[in-house]
Amino acid sequence: MWKSKETFASFSVNDLRKAKEFYTKILALKVDEENMGLSLHLPGGGRLFVYSKDDHQPATFTVLNFVVDDIEDAVKELIDRGVRLERYEGIPTDEKGILRGRSKNQGPDIAWFKDPAGNTLSIIGGGS
Questions:
Q1: The whole model's pTM is what?
Q2: Starting at the edge strand that comes first in sequence, how are the strands of the sheet with 9-13 ordered?
Q3: For residue 106, what are the domain limits?
Q4: In this predicted model, what pLDDT tens digit does every residue of 38-81 receive, in sequence order?
């Protein structure tokens, strides 16, 4: 019977040094350098492997979501750290860059941003 002993996700970046700086200093994650890339320790115990790829192309979808208790505070803190929130045509966000799904009973409150390699990340309001 096939049985996996561990699982983790991965995605590429074009510059491991910039990725390490972003994920440690901006997102405050614990990051270990490994032979072929970076191991990001995620809240809740998960792990994500980030590897360098010369012909890296940013993903066309959200590769990593961070659930936060207070999306207002999280957005402010990210902006204060120099992160620019993404705005997408056809997706109505407020002046802070947050899609307000909860108030319309259409999913969570969510805001998107990119890592230095152009991969899309999000913060999702999970508070009450």
A1: 0.90
A2: 9-13, 47-52, 37-41, 30-34
A3: 9-125
A4: 999 999 899 999 999 999 999 989 999 999 999 999 999 999 99
